[in-house]
Amino acid sequence: MGFISLGCPKALVDSERILTQLRTEGYEITPHYEDAGVVIVNTCGFIDAAKDESLEAIGEAIQENGRVLVTGCMGRGDDAENHPSSTP
Predict the structure, then answer these.
(1) pTM of the predicted protein model
(2) Is residue 88 scored above 80 in pLDDT?
């Protein structure tokens, strides 16, 4: 499983919780997207620069892996239209 954490301190805390749970359940975290079964992108959508960074990370993960799970501020679904390759 690949993992990208972006944004504010709250997102960092959320990322640590997600990673801890994944490891507890036996998932292995890999730094290489192409080796991952899925890439989780924990996003921030508070300011425009953070949204841009999140969209860029989502796009890279989709391009390199194709299987991406978006969490955090932009994982709600109402931001899905911002990335043409995303589906809610």
Answers:
(1) 0.81
(2) no
Q: Mean pLDDT in the chain?
A: 86
Would you call 70 exposed, middle or buried from its count of C-beta atoms within 10 A (0-12, 13-18, 19+)? Answer: buried
In whole angstroms, give the CA distance from residue 1 to residue 38.
Answer: 5
> What is the dotted CATH code of the domain comprising 2-77?
3.40.50.12160
**DSSP output for the chain:** -EEEE-SSHHHHHHHHHHHHHHHHTTPPP-S-GGG-S-EEEEE--SSHHHHHHHHHHHHHHHHHTS-EEEEEGGGGSTTGGGSTT---
The token pair at 19 is 């990673």
